[in-house]
Amino acid sequence: MSSPGEAQAGPASGDRGPSDDRASSDDRGSSGPAFSATGRPDDAGDLEPSLVPELLVDDLDRSLDFWRDLCGFTIRYARLDEGFAYVARGSAHVMLEQRGKGRNWLTGELEPPYGRGLNLQISVADLEPILTALRAHDVPLFMDPETRWYRIDEEEAGVRQFLVTDPDGYLLRFQQSLGRRACGSRGA
Question: Model confidence over 60-72: pLDDT tens digits?
Fold first, then answer.
């Protein structure tokens, strides 16, 4: 299991150490953002997230098939011998760790579905490519796409969103911004 410091050190380093099996362009899949010379996704800028969840999974390969191939994340780096991968889509970053490999930090018994009581909101520019990939692989949605406006002080923020569970039961809420409007407005 990596610590947050290890996660941030890997992608920023130009060295490819023995425990850093960073994905080549052939491993990334085509639906994620392109990598810049620094190894960071082009649309993520220079900011590293302050919070990166690490999800314990039963099968890293199955999880990567879902996160990378269907949801458009790219592998920033991986330690496959430890069952670990760090994936990102823009500024949304997630660490995946296979249960029973590496150092699994458990605070109690873990039973499927994992992640009960938690949903991860992931902002994307366009929901359609993800929805198309999920439907093509017969992945059921937890909640069909909807349009919602949420009050934030004197404004409302609009989103088009849907929910899906990953192979281990983690609930993902993909959302596309519709912008903001004055509270009570009916026009978009």
Answer: 999 999 999 999 9
pLDDT in tens, 74-97: 999 999 999 999 999 999 999 999
* Architecture of the structural domain at 1-104: Roll (3.10)
pTM of the model: 0.72
Q: State how far the Cα of 173 lies from the Cα of 25, in Å rounded to an integer.
A: 27
**Side by side, which strands form the sheet with 171-182?**
119-123, 171-182, 155-165, 141-152
- Superfamily the domain 113-188 falls into: 2,3-Dihydroxybiphenyl 1,2-Dioxygenase, domain 1 (3.10.180.10)
Domain(s) of CATH 3.10.180.10: residues in the chain: 113-188
For 157, the token pair is 């923020």
